[in-house]
Amino acid sequence: MLNLKTGKWATEGKEFLDGVWDGVVIYTNDQTIRTEKTKILFLIIVFIVSAVIHITINYLDITIYYVLPLVVGFIISICMFWRKNISEIGIIEKICHQTSVTDCDAVENSSYASWNRLSMNNLALSFFFSQLICIIISFVSENNNIFDTIYLISVIVSIPITIYSIYGQVKVGKICPLCLMVLICVFSEAIIFMRLPIHFVNVGVIVLFGTITVLLLCILHYYEHTLRNQQEKINTTIQLLKLKRKTEIILLESSQIEPIITPMWFGEENSSVNITTIISPSCKHCRRVVSELLLLLRKGVCFRWNVLLGKKSINDSELIKIWVQRYLSDKNQLLEDLQLWSNEKIQDLRLLKSIAIYEDRISEICNDFNRQVESLKIAVFPQIILNDRLLSPIYTSIDLKYILTDMSHLEQ
After folding, report:
1. What domains can be seen in the chain, in order of their start residue?
2. pTM tops 0.70, yes or no
């Protein structure tokens, strides 16, 4: 459960949940699981980078302070990029702790957090990651003059980056400690370049750095754009689901019909929540509806599920007889068979053992099915009837499980 005051997840007992839950179905996209995976990935990246830099320092025989700003800047830029997913790491939580002066969220959510539609977080990560890749390439190609060139780039970009970053934070009225640490790393690289006794600039390294930076920016921008679209889709789904669950919308998007009487039913016989599905044995979409309803029955949701069988193809007549026969022979066994059918583990119930009994009763029920389907003028399957109201096609089997859960909770 998420504690809104601390912003942290905690495990609570069932008794605590029963005391605060009002029956509303909560939508989640496993944010906690993804956050934990991101933290592990972050620590793995830090370990790998540290190992690579250690090997590079020993191989190229260079002083550690030459690469220290680059390594620190790369780690901080990753923290900025994944800050919301790794905020529970102790040191990140302390650095980004909200005060009257500092507020990383305010700066990140402001219009100054991007430049020309490019996120500053992406720019920072691309910058330091490109430097790191260039150093690795120099390690492979045995080029010892790499720092002159990549730190020359830091000298060039340090002034405009500093002006834009400080201007944005002044406008927002808050300071982002991580942003300031990135600026310090860039300035440190610029100072190192100016203190080098000899400056050797390699144009090929500049071209390589620029190419890698552009590629990384494209990748990160695409990744960020994809996540944003996913989040917008989730938000739209949640808002649409909230709307479709309103009683007035259900009434608006449904039509009143005469009560459906069918001998084939499951669940609570006397429940005030009645769901009738008009399905066909050869209908693939019907399998999904049946699967959702069977899942709700197993979860103990209180409702009566009436089944009305219709013919989508010529072969359905024989299949409907088999379904009815199985229901009359063993109602619970039919539920198990429908579980296999809905999960597509069997194509139809003809593959299972059949018993030739109740022939007159079967014919009577099948004729009644045909009469009711024709009177309702059903041509497309599946159709869903909720408390004598035929729902419009905007309602799916996924919507149905939330609506039934709501109505079942109100009944209890």
Report:
1. 2-241 (no CATH), 256-411 (3.40.30.10)
2. no
